[in-house]
Protein 1
Amino acid sequence: MPARLNVPKEVKRGAVVPVRIAILHPMETGFRYDVDGRSIPKNVIHTLTCKFNGDIIFRADMGSGMAANPSVQFYFVAERSGELLFEWSDDVGQRGSERATLTVTE
Amino acid sequence: MNINFARRLFSALLLGTVARCWPWLLATGSATAHAADDAVNPDPFPQLARAITGGAPIRSGRVFIDTPRLADNGHSVPITVNVESAMTAQDFVRRITLVSESNPRPLIATFHLTPKSGRAEITTRIRLNKTQRVMALAELSDGTFWSSRAEVIVTESACLDAD
């Protein structure tokens, strides 16, 4: 599952940093039918976590009410340089992850 | 003579009925209409958000929703939720939940924040199956729940079979 991250490369210490992620995923609701009339099973990314240097800074529990190709923006305070690690998994057990490094300047 | 009498009687009866109904008509026109509506359709959100609140009271305020008034496509409605909070270790927003009034699954998503979030704000895109209200519910670190609602007019439902 490809994803696009939008994180500034360099920020000032203590700045509130916007972080945005968009993941390519159909977010099937389970209410749709295919051309042969068979129900398409529900398959959504139910959990998305973001860790910074190993600490969880954000988590989203999502349902079928999220639009396809879910995109989420949130904020966090950068006190030191480090790595942002996004991890997510969907209803059929597929997992994905994406990383970004963030450099904190004085 | 006979027909005239019948006409007068009819008019008198009609007038009498209108006169008797008049206060009732006035009353139902405004205030009681709302009361009756509330009795038939009580506020659905506390019940819909019960899984999150556990029945705790939901106060209105401190939460701000930014979403288009008219979303011509329910498949993808942008929404930003901002909560008034200092975001310190003692006082922060624990989670923000989006609740839909009439989607088949009312709980859209829950976003867990920490004091390190710095700003209690999230932006995302949601699905809406028809014109409805959306509630943003914030749980603060002290355990209180705050909320705000926004009505979104949807001209194309997210629940029609696409492609």
Protein 2
Amino acid sequence: MAVVRLSFSPAPVHVRTARLVGVAVARRAGVRQGLLDEVRLAIGEACTRAVALHQQHNLPDPVRVEMSDDGTYAVRVVDRAPIEAGADLAALPPYELARESLSEDALTTGVGFALLAGFVDDLLVRPADGGVGTEVQMVWPLDR
Amino acid sequence: MELSLATRTVGGFAVVVVGGEVDVYTAPQLRERLFELVDAGAEHVVVDLGRVDFLDSTGLGVLVGVLKRLRTAGGSFALVCDREPLLKIFRITALDQVFPLYSTVDAATGA
């Protein structure tokens, strides 16, 4: 089993780095080429969400990402925000998306979760180990 | 790849051609350009996503924000997109039911 760990300051510019690393490790682990765009998008969404939570709560702590291949390709993105802040993940229906009073941040959160749920068959959102923060775990099959 | 933005006028439409990656880092640039256009009086705006190779929820949030702003002002907003990976993003988020989506700029501008 190979493990790659990455931690980055909660700034938008580093989300791209996390996507690049996540896809590079996925490719090396043997994730099917046709899934790599979805891996890239999902890792980006999970990291974007974590960065947004850290910024909302003025948390300078790094966002942690762990990639591992042990029969499957698993990516865990862990934030340090209060758990209740990360619990409002829900996809929004079309009429809600177009509602005038819905803020851009709320819309982005709902759309982000719809993308995670849509592109990751095996998605788990749970409290992080240690009781602070949320862990988003995404798993993809390996083609080998 | 960095974000690229180019604006031209087709009939009464302001057409913004977007290229590169639209994500949490670059979406503010897209928001600024589109809001500048609207503030300058553009009523009918078309965003051509033909050269976009990555689009995430923050980019989608910006596009919805501009759609709402133009709709409130009595204008129109449409997207040009004919690539399946991006179209899948619109379907999964149900935003294909929110945006007018066209496969070409000509179709979006009625040229």
